[in-house]
Amino acid sequence: ATREDPKYHPRFQVGTKVRALNTNTAGHTRLPRYAKGRTGVVNRVQGNHVLPDASAKGEDIAEPLYCVAFTHLELWGSSGVGRNIVYVDLWESYLEPA
Question: pTM above the 0.90 mark?
Fold first, then answer.
């Protein structure tokens, strides 16, 4: 669910290079393993949304959600084919500046 909350301002803007955290999370997360530690570019800022990790524990926390573009080369190296881009929706707590 989208939630506009003035205390949650997006840290990153469209075009910002970001890196997905390389963490070992216990429990539920929407940070895909293949994106952990990888660098991408913010393609879209999608507003504030309920953080699924917190929601799975009964907590009601919302934070900025970003559509991040990763090159196929960044995610899988030379083992893939073509110049594909993979778009992944990632919450702010999953990201750091690259």
Answer: no
